[in-house]
Write a structure and sequence with these properties.
GO terms for molecular function: 4-phosphoerythronate dehydrogenase activity. Helices cover 36% and strands 18% of the residues. With 308 residues, the chain is an alpha/beta fold.
Amino acid sequence: MGHNNANRDFLSGGGAKVKKTTTLILGCGDIGKALGHELLEAGHRVVGARRHPQALEGSGLEAVAVDLADPATLPRLPDADTLVYVVSADRFEEEAYRAAYPDGLKAVLQEFAGRDRPPQRVFFVSSTSVYAQRDGELVDEESPAAPSGFSGTLMCEAERALIDHDLPGTVVRFSGIYGPGRDRLIRQVGEGRIAPASPVMYSNRIHRDDCAGALAHLIGLSLAGTPLEPLYLGSDCEPAPLNEVMAWIARQLKVEATENIQSPLRRRASKRCDNARLLESGYRFRYPSFREGYAQVLKAGGFLSEKA
């Protein structure tokens, strides 16, 4: 099944009088805009909320200003059938993470739970960084999440706040997101830097367009009345050693690796994310592995400008 067939089926219904559903995307940045465009195409009304809504000008999305740290701004958010919380912390500090994740999400849940028309479902975009596994273990939705750092700990607190709430909620944990403009790995390889082959360091990733596609797919299922799990892992179909990914990119760029990246890898978790639950829900990846995904980013980003 295509990633947004459920949206189309729900919205087309069987007559022209089907009510247009409203999706409110909180923290509407790169992923939020990509999701918004998918939903617009499927016939939704889409509202993007962020502190500086002028960033949404020209996007085709309705925009509303909100500061999640200021509860007085929350009542201006419109009622919605679906809420998508895809907020990013301002900086990598505990205070910023607490404000963006558990505190911000709890404030939004409190605001919408008290409304006459609460949302049918709330989606919270989380991260596979909540897993502490670092020896190449396979992890899925049932694997223990026992993060040691503040970022994963606060993310887990936010997840729990949603799952335990009276409003129906689903958490989607994305692995390393890449795509247009998210090309740090390509630039490292372009400089001749590559991860060592040993010890094997597994990495997991998902293309930005599959982040949007998976969310649109789950929203469509929710609106169609299909029961959803409380948690999904959003990662592509091939966890791969980082060395293998970078060596493949190097071949596309026709560059020689001259330097091993060392220190960041010691801090990196090595695990393999299992996306079986998302696949079983009917989602089909546009970029099932790093090869298809990075081929798109290399082409779109002009990295392959020279003819072979």
